[in-house]
Amino acid sequence: MALAVNTKAPLFTLKQRTADGFADVALSDFIGKKKVVLLFFPFAFSSVCEEELCSVSGGLDQYESLNAQVLGISVDLPFAQAAFANAVGINFPLISDFNGDVSMAYDVSYDEILGLKGVSKRSAFVIDLDGTIVYSSASDDPTVVPSFDEIKAALQ
Fold first, then answer.
1. pTM above 0.85, yes or no
2. Is 49 known to be catalytic?
């Protein structure tokens, strides 16, 4: 079961592949400055992930107007995430939880899916300015995306 609302969000630092190389993305960099939307997704280059993340990317101005930073997290390598983002036009950071530590900390890691262990469940968290989770959603069905209306309401 995913971490509950009113829980302090576990801090993390993960890698993002950028045009200039690797960059650290730390949740602590946003605490006190911006709300954060964490979108855990199973696999880069899968159709549901592409639809979900491209939809968010296309409406990124709505999240920015609510003082929110969107971060996509999967256990894919940073190279695969960068290729995925470039191929489909995702314009917010995709960060690699390759070892699965953050997925486990947020309790959104599959025991097994498609014969693979440690894959991130399709999940969403909204973290407020003080680092508290104010929205939490996770699905055992990787084809079910979170409610973006609920996410935006939690950002109000």
1. yes
2. yes
pLDDT range class, residue 35, cuts 50, 70, 90: very high
Tokens of 140: 């055992």
Residue 114 CB: number of other CB atoms within 10 A? 9
- The residue annotated as part of the active site, out of 9, 31, 44, 49, is 49
Place of tokens 């498609």: 114
pLDDT of 18 reads 92
What does the CA dihedral 93, 90, 147, 108 come to, rounded to 10 degrees? Answer: -50
- DSSP for 73-117, please give it: EESS-HHHHHHHHHHHT--S-EEE-TT-HHHHHTT-B-S-BTTBS
